[in-house]
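Standup notes
- DV: blocked on the single-chain target, sequence here:
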Amino acid sequence: MPRLIVTSASVLALLAACGSASEGPAVVQNSVQAPITGERDPSPKPFDEIPVATFDRPWAMSFLPDGRMLVTEKAGRMLLVSADGQQRRAVSGIPAAIDSEGQGGLLDVVPHPGFASNGLVYFSFSEPGPGGAGVALARGRLVADGSGARLEGMRVIFRAAPKVEGDGHYSGRIAFSPDGFLFFTAGERVKFNPAQDPKATLGKVLRLKEDGTPAPGNPLAAKGFDPAIWSYGHRNLLGIAFDAEGRLWEQEMGPMGGDELNLILPGRNYGYPIVSNGDHYDGRVIPDHPTRPEFEAPKVSWNPVISPAGLIIYSGSLFPEWKGNAFVGGLSSMSLVRIEFNGIEAREAARYDMGARIREVEQGPDGAIWLLEDGPDGRLLKLTPKK
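- DV (later): unblocked, structure below
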């Protein structure tokens, strides 16, 4: 199968385009590896874009039951934002030790499914420590009153291991399953081999109890794997979401090419770095997925890349024709990508040119789709049906 031929100058151009070696290289021409290519004409936009607010390098957002939002900024600030986006309060109680270099920082934020009664909020961040840094998962009880907004009783409940040097591929996405377990993603930290190491929790999807301890019944524990591991062989996992049937979908950034959308199945090996539909940035070839059928292959693969960030499975009524579709933000592609499903199969159905790097995608309480742009002065956008 044809491979991209990349010169040292073009590699430098790729890195300069994304600001980080593996979070959004520029679109590269002339690849035919992927079943769906990253380069395509944008689709007409059937929505209006309403600017709501701006943030400093925002990373993630989630809605609370009353319509307020929690927004994280990379440098280490969490904000409680009013439903209309016009008021905000900084949330205290966030760890002071956050390594925000490179791809690090304050990352995902998700309320507990029982937030209305328990007030619990879960968040992830890159934490320095002996040996380097690693992604950590923490929780606290959100209290907002006349004296401000804060996380009470905040504590770290899980740390991916081992900590390593470097500032890439933390991942740190959070999702609760319909049966109440906590799924968490830990990237392989640009170290490649930990994704296949049964004792490391890097390069893995993890299934935990809500207190951060390994969930019972994880499929690989009896085979000598770390008991928290649900699936392995992943790279930089930047979106996870459950569909209406309870299936878990995950998207991750590939190396130089080969971004992926995966159906996550218990105990499966997704092949990285042994196989990929892309190659290493230094030009070393990685065998394609079809050469090793024992590894779970992606349902959608992009080469040229889209640099995926954020993932939702749409369930609202504001866009009824999109119910059950997935939406993925694109960093280097500066796009919003819509994916249609046919059971366990998937295909890219549309790509909307957003004119900016899209870091996060969320669904609002009324069914609107909300986006966060990447970078300084990143806008919060609300998408509603075109008038």
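- Follow-up: Residues 8-18 form the longest helix (11 residues).
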